[in-house]
Amino acid sequence: MRRVVITGGASGLGRAMAERFIAEGDRVAICDADPSAVAGFAQAYPDHIAMTADVTDESQMATVFDAVEAAFSGVDVVCANAGIGGPAGRIEDLSLADWTRCVEVNLSGTFLTCRWAARQMRAAGQGLIVLTSSTAGQFGYPLRSPYATAKWGIVGLTKTLAMELGPAGVRVNAICP
Predict the structure, then answer these.
(1) 141 an active-site residue?
(2) pLDDT tens digit string along 122-133?
(3) Catalytic residue among 82, 147, 151, 161
């Protein structure tokens, strides 16, 4: 039985990940920014952890990670999946606030998740971190520059963390739906 944490886990791809891990008999903790989706997950899976949190808020994520540590006494798999599509439009028409929010959720939220996972997994000498990027992080995406930039950043973070954590027994991979 693995101990699994999934950000953005109450709906979409994150929920599908969570449901698959649960079907395999794993203990799952999810967090998500959508309170109603979290409530729906909690109702469907009352034996697992479901918390509302903004992945860009360091204190909210500390609360999630503290709860996971208390309940699971460690972690085996972390899926940094939380993300948003962000604004669409020509670069000259985008606001800095929209750009920043997209990069913060997609990339900085992934950083906070990986920082915690690395501490846990390095100490344990094993683990798996899966980051959700996108084909936009491989090929670009016209009129979606904040999203594509953040997803390219996730690919770079994945490669870097694989080199950094691999010797400690931690695998780091990205998926690019």
Answers:
(1) no
(2) 999 999 999 999
(3) 147
pLDDT tens figures, 44-91: 999 999 999 999 999 999 999 999 999 999 999 999 999 999 999 999
Distance of CA 104 to the CA centre of its chain: 12
The tokens describing 161, both together, are: 């963390």
The token pair at 176 is 């690019």
Residue 17 makes CB contacts below 8 A (sequence gap 6+) with 6, 9, 79, 81
C-alpha pair distances (Å), 80 with each of 43, 88, 95: 23, 23, 26
Would you call 163 exposed, middle or buried from its count of C-beta atoms within 10 A (0-12, 13-18, 19+)? exposed
CA-to-CA distance for 176 and 103, rounded, in angstroms? 17
- Find all residues with CB under 8 Å of 87, minimum gap 6, and list them: 94, 95, 98, 99, 102, 146
Residues 155 and 47: their CA atoms lie apart, in Å, by 33
Nearest to 60 by CA among 26, 31, 89, 87: 31
- Tell me which residue has tokens 């606001």: 95
What is d(CA 113, CA 150) in angstroms, rounded to the nearest whole number?
A: 15
